[in-house]
Amino acid sequence: MADISGHRLFKFPKPQWMNSANTRTAGVYAAGALFSIALFVFIDAATFSKSHLNGSDFHVNFVDWIPGIFSVLGMLVINSIDKSRLSADNFSYSGDGVAWKARVVLFMGFAAMAGGLAGGVTVLVLKYYVREASWPALWFGVGNVVANALIMLSSVVLWVSQNMEDDYTYNLAL
Amino acid sequence: MAGLKTIIVLSFILAIGFLLVILSAALYKNFLTLLVVATYVIAPIPNWLCGRASSQDDFMDSGSSSIVELGRFMTGFLVVMGVALPVVLAHCDLIRPEAMIMSIIGGLLIYSTIISFTMFFHQEEEF
């Protein structure tokens, strides 16, 4: 273990539990849980808009769903990519430009996800905040932003736990 | 190893869980909370299917297969859905808050019964 820690960059070593298989499994479960919370925040806003508790003139249309659709598409794209292809140009067996293609697709995924979050904020500001919605109707916009942020967080957790796997197998190979 | 006592205790817990969910539906004449039972019954299925789909791999690929991780992702999704669904229904005044509490507790009891049943009797399937 000491020879590995000689190569590290930071003062504090990575904690040992970060590399265990149980943490990886828990990370994948947590990503699913976060994605579920995000989807149900969306659904709660849409259902509340349709229920009799919503006395205002504000309603959830298809416009409110567009940022969420983009976030989900970005998450699908990001997590569909084989992570080992990102450094494929360092090896000679792969064809020309595999890593380049992977980075382009990954960039489109990240752009879709960031666009989803930005679109959530846009809907909150333009559709609800500018037109002076009070609290129960303001929840439609706030919930939109919260749901997009949770989808992004879920994607981050999934990404980190999938990269953790590579470190684990690397340590196993040593 | 897991004896008769375990089966009896687990079946009692399962019956109490079903009782709570059905009571939360029938007491308030609103049967939307029965969706919780469907969610928790479906919840372990992705793990079983994906674990079966990846079992042909050799030792080096075990644990790092991405289809197993897809199954775990969907399991986490469905478990949280079982809690989030009554909360959404209660927040939008489709069910009463009492029905929400009863169906959440009942659903968690049902799910923990399923999980502990598979944990107790998993070794005996392999022989």
From TrEMBL, chain A:
<feature type="transmembrane region" description="Helical">
    <location>
        <begin position="138"/>
        <end position="160"/>
    </location>
</feature>
<feature type="transmembrane region" description="Helical">
    <location>
        <begin position="21"/>
        <end position="42"/>
    </location>
</feature>
<keyword id="KW-0812">Transmembrane</keyword>
<dbReference type="InterPro" id="IPR007919">
    <property type="entry name" value="UPF0220"/>
</dbReference>
<feature type="transmembrane region" description="Helical">
    <location>
        <begin position="102"/>
        <end position="126"/>
    </location>
</feature>
<keyword id="KW-1133">Transmembrane helix</keyword>
<dbReference type="Pfam" id="PF05255">
    <property type="entry name" value="UPF0220"/>
</dbReference>
<protein>
    <recommendedName>
        <fullName>Vacuolar protein sorting-associated protein 68</fullName>
    </recommendedName>
</protein>
<keyword id="KW-0472">Membrane</keyword>
<dbReference type="GO" id="GO:0016020">
    <property type="term" value="C:membrane"/>
</dbReference>
<comment type="similarity">
    <text>Belongs to the UPF0220 family.</text>
</comment>
<feature type="transmembrane region" description="Helical">
    <location>
        <begin position="62"/>
        <end position="81"/>
    </location>
</feature>
From TrEMBL, chain B:
<keyword id="KW-0472">Membrane</keyword>
<dbReference type="GO" id="GO:0032511">
    <property type="term" value="P:late endosome to vacuole transport via multivesicular body sorting pathway"/>
</dbReference>
<keyword id="KW-0812">Transmembrane</keyword>
<dbReference type="GO" id="GO:0034424">
    <property type="term" value="C:Vps55/Vps68 complex"/>
</dbReference>
<dbReference type="Pfam" id="PF04133">
    <property type="entry name" value="Vps55"/>
</dbReference>
<feature type="transmembrane region" description="Helical">
    <location>
        <begin position="31"/>
        <end position="49"/>
    </location>
</feature>
<comment type="similarity">
    <text>Belongs to the OB-RGRP/VPS55 family.</text>
</comment>
<dbReference type="InterPro" id="IPR007262">
    <property type="entry name" value="Vps55/LEPROT"/>
</dbReference>
<feature type="transmembrane region" description="Helical">
    <location>
        <begin position="7"/>
        <end position="25"/>
    </location>
</feature>
<feature type="transmembrane region" description="Helical">
    <location>
        <begin position="101"/>
        <end position="121"/>
    </location>
</feature>
<feature type="transmembrane region" description="Helical">
    <location>
        <begin position="70"/>
        <end position="89"/>
    </location>
</feature>
<keyword id="KW-1133">Transmembrane helix</keyword>
<protein>
    <recommendedName>
        <fullName>Vacuolar protein sorting-associated protein 55</fullName>
    </recommendedName>
</protein>
